[in-house]
Structures are given as structure tokens and as C-alpha cells.
Specification:
Family: Belongs to the iron/ascorbate-dependent oxidoreductase family.
Keywords: Iron, Metal-binding, Oxidoreductase
Number of domains: 1
Structural class: alpha+beta
Largest sheet: 9 strands, mixed
Shape: globular
Strand order of the largest sheet: 1-2-3-11-8-13-6-5-4
GO molecular function, one term: metal ion binding
Oligomer: single chain
Protein name: Oxidoreductase,Oxoglutarate/iron-dependent oxygenase family
InterPro entries: DIOX_N, IPNS-like_FE2OG_OXY, IPNS-like_sf, Iron_ascorbate_oxido_reductase, Oxoglu/Fe-dep_dioxygenase_dom
Number of helices: 9
Radius of gyration: 19 Å
Length: 331
């Protein structure tokens, strides 16, 4: 099996189109990666998200962040309950800290050098839908909304297949999670890491600080710049260099709780690219697209059958997510 750093690369096509035996083999590979590393890369997902669609998503992402600041600020993120809209550089500081005081100290000493655009499900089709609406640049980028809504839906479909693979490997039955993630309470995040002086990062900052993700699994589409690092079992950070036509998949904290620590939510960060030109004083601009998949908002997360004595009390998805988001954002 190929790897990028410590991250395995798995061919997902046999799970999507193969025999039951082939599906089981891929499911077990995926499960092993999620228990050993907590990160993997999937290739051959073209039947769900073709490379041309990913390329278009990056083009749309760049167009959005190239808009004038006064346009983006009109779409500003407002509250963790909504978790939608534009987040200017410095407003979020991802970390494992939970103390407001500690996070504000980190924000002052080593801010995250990034800006983001947060997008949720854009239509109402059930009793538990969020009352909040997305914030779109409809006048300036009329094609942005329909494209991102479709990309959101396609990422959800891939997320469902990943959850089916994990359920199959865990002996829960392939459809175990289907009605627990069908509300599509996810977050599509577009990220822009502007070109900045390398000295700012070399002096202790990060493009994104060390953190774990919050939900079930994250899908991360990287450009070619690099900078993602994954923490290994010894506590060292190892580069996960971009691999063409793959999507990075990592386990989130709620899925780790759900699995009673069987599946591993791994610390990661974004730093200077490992392969950059050391003589160049400025970083390259970096764009990435993350799809933070979540259980249904009112799903009670309690340890799955067959995972041993529960290590965690049950928690409601929405309450957990709002708490985590509220800790890492400034008003």
C-alpha cells in the first residue's frame, strides 16, 4: 500500500463498484487506517467527485477569496450555532485548549494565518433543519452558490460511503449510520492561506495550529502547495504531502467518542511546506477545501455496540459542536 508520510493511500473504487468480498477488503483497509493513524487518502472516487469538479471547486474558492474585503465582510460569520459565513484572518484559533484565556493567549502569540468561508446545507427538508441560512456573494459571484451546493451534496454522498465502509468493518451492518447522518448537518469550509513572510511562521506561528476535528470524518482536498502535518504515535509531526487526485480523510472527535476510542482522532496542523524554497522570504499562497461531516444535530452520541465499557458519557451532536466552536472563535 502506498503512503504519504504516515498516511496510507487506499483505492476506494472496489468499495463503490466491486463485489461484496472486494467491499469488505477495502472496508478493512480503511478501518485499519482509522485505528492506526486516524488519517488516510482515498483515490478513485471519480464516480462521486471527479477531478474536474475538484479543480472547479478550487477555482471558485480562489475567486471568492480574491473578492474585495468589504464584500467578504458583509458575509461575516456570526455565531457558533449558525457556523456559516466569512471568517477573517485571526478570528478563529484552532487548538486543543478549551480555556478562553488560554486560547486568547495563543491567538495573540501565534495566530492562525488563514481566512475561511463556511457553508452549511442550503435548503429545508426536515423538522430538525438549522434555522440559519448561508451567506452568499450572489451579486459578485452568481455561479458560486449553485456550484457549492452541488459540491456539498457530492461530499455528503462520499461521507456516507465512508461511514458504510467503517460500519461494515466494525460488524455493525453497512447501513448502520445511514439514518444517523442523513440530516446533512455538515460544514463545507473553503480555506485561503495568504502569502505571508515566512519569518512570521518560523517565529512560532502556524497557518493552522495543532488541533483535532470535531465531527465524524473530515474530507480534505489539498492544492499542490503542502504544509499539512499529522502527529504520529511518538508525538512527532510528519508531513502528509499532497497526492494528485486523492482526498484526505481523517477521523473526528465525535466519531472517536462514538467508537469508544477504537477509531482515532489525530492531532494535525498546517505549517510551512516541507519542500519549499528556503531562499524565498514569502510563503506560497495555499488553498484547501474541507468538508466537516457530522452526525444529525440531535443524535445522541453513545458508545457503539461491541466497543467495550463506555469511556465517555453520551452527548448530543449540536451541543458538542456549539461548545467546541464557541471556544475557538472571537466575537
Amino acid at each position: 500500500m502506498a503512503v504519504s508520510g504516515i498516511v496510507p493511500i487506499i483505492d476506494f473504487a472496489p468499495f463503490l463498484t466491486g463485489s461484496q468480498a472486494e467491499k469488505k477488503e477495502v472496508a478493512e483497509e480503511l478501518f485499519k487506517a482509522c485505528t492506526d493513524v486516524g488519517f488516510l487518502m482515498l483515490r478513485n472516487i471519480d464516480s462521486l467527485i471527479p477531478p474536474s469538479q475538484v479543480s472547479s471547486a478550487f477555482a471558485q474558492t480562489k475567486q471568492f477569496f480574491d473578492l474585495p474585503m468589504e464584500v467578504k465582510e458583509k458575509l461575516a460569520w456570526e455565531c457558533p450555532e449558525s457556523n456559516r459565513g466569512y471568517v477573517a484572518e485571526g478570528r478563529e484559533r484552532v487548538t486543543q485548549e478549551s480555556s478562553k484565556e488560554a486560547i486568547e493567549k495563543l491567538r495573540a502569540q501565534a495566530p492562525d494565518y488563514k481566512e475561511t468561508m463556511e457553508i452549511g446545507k442550503d435548503y429545508k427538508d426536515g423538522p430538525y433543519d438549522s434555522p440559519f441560512e448561508n451567506r452568499w456573494p450572489e451579486t459578485d459571484l452568481p455561479d458560486f452558490k449553485p456550484f457549492m451546493n452541488q459540491f456539498f451534496e457530492d461530499c455528503h454522498r462520499l461521507h456516507v460511503e465512508i461511514m458504510r465502509a467503517l460500519a461494515l468493518a466494525m460488524g455493525l451492518g453497512e447501513g448502520f449510520f445511514d439514518d444517523k447522518v442523513n440530516q446533512k448537518a455538515h460544514n463545507l469550509r473553503l480555506l485561503n492561506y495568504p502569502s505571508i513572510e515566512k519569518a512570521k511562521i518560523e517565529g512560532g506561528g502556524n497557518r493552522a495550529g495543532s488541533h483535532s476535528d470535531y465531527g465524524t470524518v473530515t474530507l480534505l482536498f489539498q492544492d499542490s502547495v503542502g504544509g499539512l502535518e499529522v502527529q504520529d504515535k511518538q508525538g512527532n509531526f510528519v508531513p502528509a504531502r499532497p497526492v494528485d487526485d486523492t482526498v484526505v480523510v481523517n477521523v473526528g472527535d465525535l466519531l472517536m467518542r462514538w467508537s469508544n476510542d477504537v477509531l482515532k482522532s489525530t492531532i494535525h496542523r498546517v505549517v510551512l511546506p516541507a519542500d519549499g524554497d528556503p531562499s524565498e522570504p514569502m510563503t506560497a499562497r495555499r488553498n484547501s477545501i474541507a468538508f466537516f461531516s457530522n452526525p444529525n444535530l440531535h443524535e445522541m452520541i453513545r458508545c457503539l455496540p461491541g466497543t467495550g465499557e463506555p469511556k465517555y458519557p453520551e452527548v448530543e451532536t449540536e451541543a458538542y459542536l456549539v461548545k467546541r466552536l464557541g471556544e475557538t472563535y472571537t466575537k
